[in-house]
Structure formats: C-alpha cells, structure tokens
Automatic annotation (TrEMBL):
Annotated keywords: Acyltransferase, Transferase
Native organism: Pseudomonas antarctica
E.C. numbers: 2.3.1.-
Name of the featured protein: Protein N-acetyltransferase, RimJ/RimL family
GO molecular function: acyltransferase activity, transferring groups other than amino-acyl groups
Gene: ydaF_4
Residues annotated as signal peptide: none
Amino acid sequence: MPTALPQLSTPRLLLRALEMDQTETLLRLVSDPAIADNTANIPSPYTLEVAQRFIGQMQEKYREGGLLGQGMHLRETGELIGMVSLRINARHHYGHLGYWVAAHCRNQGYAAEAARAVMDFGFTELGLQRVGSQCFGRNKESARVMQKIGLCYEGCMREAFLKNGVYEDLLVFATVRDDWERAR
C-alpha cells in the first residue's frame, strides 16, 4: 500500500488530506448537529482539539494501512465541503466507506461523486475485494448515495447500534470486485 495519502479528483471535487490551517473550517462544518447525529464515530460536541488531532493523524492512519481519509474540496474554489473515508481491513481486502457533506452542499451529488472515486481507488489501487457501508435506517439520504454508486442493499441489522441512548437499525450495502468490474 502506498505511504502518502493520494490526491483524487472528480469532475467537481478535489479529494485530499486536510491541512492544519483548515481546523477552524472543519470545526465549523462538523458542529452541525445533523453530522454527529447521522454518523457512528463523530463526537458531539466536536471540539477544536478533536479537529486538530483528526487532521494531525490523517497521514499516519493511511501509512498504517487502516484509513484513507480525504477532505472534499470544490475544484473551482478549494472550499472544504465534507469528508469521505475508506476504513481498510487489509486482512479481508475490505473497505468500509464513510462520508458527510456540509449542510449548504447537501443534495447536490457531492457525496456520491466522492464516495465513487474513493471506492474506485480501493478496487484499482488497494486491490480490495469488497467495498461496503452502513447507515442508520432513518438516514434515507445516505442509503440513496450508496445505491447511486452501485452498492447493493444486503439487509437490515435491527437495533444493532446504540446512538444517543436509542437502538438504531443499520442498513447494510456493499459490492464486490466482480460486480464493480461489470458495472464499469
């Protein structure tokens, strides 16, 4: 696996590691309660220290082979509008997609564009066999993104995740290398 975080591009986005000077922007975007509410690992409240630690560890986590984390930046302006990640399980050749988009940029196809680019990178450059993701049953927007990029619905794990004192259903989506290759 390469040691430096790649820079990926799509027609509208540049996907790259965050820089420390983006800490305040990251903090402002992630402080939207909907982001923490719809993700498994983002704490609320999100603090400046958490943002600094997250940015500071991006390269190291990729070098260690566990996480490809990329900021979604608009190509035209360079504005940070979200994050996309691929949590890598090298032993099983599996990648788990995650993403979020800033409130003012939702419903414009950015999540699907970024997730597709990262999924393609996982199959072509990392040699993954399977890429998948999960979302809370109530998060129809995220389920739509997964279907849009070619992940197939595999089922619902009922009350599988405890979030803010409530057991949440997890919808499971994935694709495997053969299906991804046929769809290309």
